[in-house]
Structure formats: C-alpha cells, structure tokens
Amino acid sequence: MPEKILIVEDSQAMRRSVARLLESEAYQVFEAADGEDGLAQFARHLPDLVILDINMPRMNGLEVVQRLREFSGVPILILSVRAAEMDRVVGLDTGADDYLGKPFGADELLARVRALLRRRVHESLSARPNVLRLGGGHLIVDLVKHRVLRDGQLVRLTPIESKLLFTLAQQPGQAVTHDHLLDTVWGDDSAGTTQNLKLYILYLRRKIEPEPEQPRYLVTVRGVGYMLSAL
Q1: Residue 155 to residue 139: CA distance in whole angstroms
Q2: What is the pLDDT of residues 103-159, one digit of tens each?
Q3: Which of 91, 154, 155, 209 could form a disulfide with 148 if both were Cys (CB 3.0 to 4.6 A apart)?
Q4: What's CA 132's distance to the chain center, in Å?
Q5: What is the DSSP code string of 44-106?
Q6: Residue 157's domain is classified under what CATH number?
C-alpha cells in the first residue's frame, strides 16, 4: 500500500509541482490550499507525512504544526522561502521534523521525504508497546493477551467494545479518525454509523474510566475522532 503524503501549500503551481514529483515516486498524494483545509484533509486521510508552507491564508504553517502536535506525531516537513536560521529554529521548535528552504532541488526533497518516512517506520516499530499502562497502572491494556484490567480486575468487553478499544490501543497518544474506526470495527455492516460509534465510546468509558463524564483515558479529539491517552 503506497505511503500517503499531504501537501499544504497555497501556491497552486508549487503544490502541483511537488505533487507530481511525489506521484512519480508512487506516493499517494493529497493536497490542501490553506491551513484549515490542511487539518481537515489530515483528519480525512491520516497521511504518513505532511509537507507544508509557512505563509498561508486562514491559518499559517506554524499554527498547523502546533495543532497537529496536539494529537499526532506524524512527520512534518516545512518548505518555505523563509530560510533564515531563526526561521528554521522557530519551525523546528514548534514541532516540525525538518525544514527545507525554497527554491530546492527535486532530488533533495525526495531524499528528505524518504528519510522522514524511514524514521517514522523505525520509531513506530521500536516505540509500540505490548502493554499500555494508563493512569499510573490503574488501567492496563494488554495487546498480546488481548485483555483489559482496571485496578487489577478484568474488564469484560463485548466484541464491538473490544475491537474499538484495541484499534485505539494500536496508536496510543494518536488521534484515530471516525472513518477509520467505523471501517475497522464495523466494515460494511450497516450498523457502522457515527451515532453507534459515539454510543460504544460511551459504553467503553463507563467500563474503563474513573469518571466517565470527564474521561482521562479515552478522549475526544475535536473534529478528528478519538484517542487513547498515552499518559
């Protein structure tokens, strides 16, 4: 399955040029013309890498980086004419992984993309835990034995609840979109509706949360989906 890359760039000419280059390397590319649409496209497609400009209408690139870092560790490459050292420092300190000044060569861009995607795979494999201990160990999600313990007691889950929770547990600390959860948990079943998803999230919270009305483990990421807290 091709790796997915989102380009957020207000210049159509630059956006299409980068997109064609990436598509020629068999990446699946999505495009957005401003920061707000970029966040919407991210929620819809969950790309493996984000490439974005800084100077954009409605929401600039640094604001997009800050928003993404609230719920995702996706690699971010900034492309910008603002190539001074301080601009690079600000971009990286905001949460970007790499910074490339415009103009740039095609080979260098592709090399940066490959490096970030390799790093993502390596970090994902090395950091993925087999057992999640949330709330200082009050909630334990064992991905190997496929069981959940709350304060040492086994939590009985229905098949739907189990599939939903363990789908979220595959990406702790990362937002999982509504669409991905519906596709993974219900597939083509007509019961896979947004309303049922909200209902089963409520059922799960009643079973795993100390205070279901103020969830600390299974949290809502507004406009995106849900996340199993890594804390």
Answers
A1: 10
A2: 899 999 999 999 999 887 665 544 556 788 888 888 999 988 889 999 889 999 999
A3: 155
A4: 19
A5: HH--SEEEE-SS-SSS-HHHHHHHHTTT----EEEEES--SHHHHHHHHHHT-SEEEESS--H
A6: 1.10.10.10
pLDDT tens per residue across span 217-226: 999 998 889 9
Q: Which amino acid is at 45?
A: H
Q: What is the pLDDT of residues 13-42, one digit of tens each?
A: 999 999 999 999 999 999 999 999 999 888
List CB contacts of 27: < 8 A, sequence separation 6 or more: 2, 3, 4, 5, 113
In this structure, are 101 and 146 located in the same domain?
A: no
Based on the fold, state whether residues 55 and 71 are members of the same structural domain: yes
Which pTM value belongs to this model? 0.63
For 192-228, b/e burial (b = at least 16 CB within 10 A) is beeebbeebbebbbebbbeeeeebbbbbebeebbbbb
